[in-house]
Amino acid sequence: MPTNSSTPKPQLQTLVKSPQFAWWLGHVTLLVCSAIYLPYSLTFNSKSGSIWYSGALLGALVSYGVVAYKSFPEIKLEAQFLQSVFVEENIQYLLLAFFWWRSTPRLVALIPYMVYALFNALNYARINLMPEGALALKIKNWTELNHDQAMLLVAYVEIIGVMGTLVLQGLTFQGSLLWPIVYAFFLRFRYFFSLHTRAAFAALRTRLDAKVVGNPKIPPKAIMAYEVARGAVIRFGMAAVKQPTASQ
């Protein structure tokens, strides 16, 4: 919806008292700490910069914690309530942020949070902190133009980057083989709820099929193994879209 330029911005004193301001500060903290951590990671010195990695994820925990609190202000020990909590994507990202915070630093794990934080922080600042003008308009146009591509990037990072890293670390005994299994359930939820994740999976399948199926350079047993693995992944993913049968 178009912004009414005559609408006054909220007073700063009012803003800082709102949970939404803490949400914004969490995103800003995530972005700043990630930017400082980046050189440590790129120079293979992640342990020395681990405090900044932890700071980034603490920012994520604050932001997603605010959303979780606003979405579920009252906790109920009921099966239906717990189910509604765990299928909420912000809760999933909150739990995942806690998992990354308690595990070995991985730059790839921060990338989805960084992308979300960038768009959220910019939009909040534009709407609540910036005066109407050229800069605010540029930010609005940039975020609207790049949003879908950024969300698709997140999907590819989560599917290839994060899952690939977890599998590789598990196979080389640098991490638990349980991690990729747990993360697979997260991706299954993302496939169910995110159009961009479904688009990324579909594009990856098309590319892999084109390179593997019917390729005379690949042994038939390897092609068969690929098709079996592809079928298993599809069945696992589709299991999420089956709705539970109503009790009689």
Automatic annotation (TrEMBL):
<dbReference type="GO" id="GO:0016020">
    <property type="term" value="C:membrane"/>
</dbReference>
<feature type="transmembrane region" description="Helical">
    <location>
        <begin position="150"/>
        <end position="171"/>
    </location>
</feature>
<feature type="transmembrane region" description="Helical">
    <location>
        <begin position="107"/>
        <end position="129"/>
    </location>
</feature>
<dbReference type="GO" id="GO:0061024">
    <property type="term" value="P:membrane organization"/>
</dbReference>
<feature type="transmembrane region" description="Helical">
    <location>
        <begin position="177"/>
        <end position="193"/>
    </location>
</feature>
<keyword id="KW-1133">Transmembrane helix</keyword>
<protein>
    <recommendedName>
        <fullName>Tetra-spanning protein 1</fullName>
    </recommendedName>
</protein>
<feature type="transmembrane region" description="Helical">
    <location>
        <begin position="21"/>
        <end position="39"/>
    </location>
</feature>
<feature type="transmembrane region" description="Helical">
    <location>
        <begin position="51"/>
        <end position="69"/>
    </location>
</feature>
<dbReference type="Pfam" id="PF03661">
    <property type="entry name" value="TMEM33_Pom33"/>
</dbReference>
<dbReference type="InterPro" id="IPR005344">
    <property type="entry name" value="TMEM33/Pom33"/>
</dbReference>
<comment type="similarity">
    <text>Belongs to the PER33/POM33 family.</text>
</comment>
<dbReference type="GO" id="GO:0071786">
    <property type="term" value="P:endoplasmic reticulum tubular network organization"/>
</dbReference>
<dbReference type="GO" id="GO:0005783">
    <property type="term" value="C:endoplasmic reticulum"/>
</dbReference>
<keyword id="KW-0812">Transmembrane</keyword>
<dbReference type="InterPro" id="IPR051645">
    <property type="entry name" value="PER33/POM33_regulator"/>
</dbReference>
<keyword id="KW-0472">Membrane</keyword>
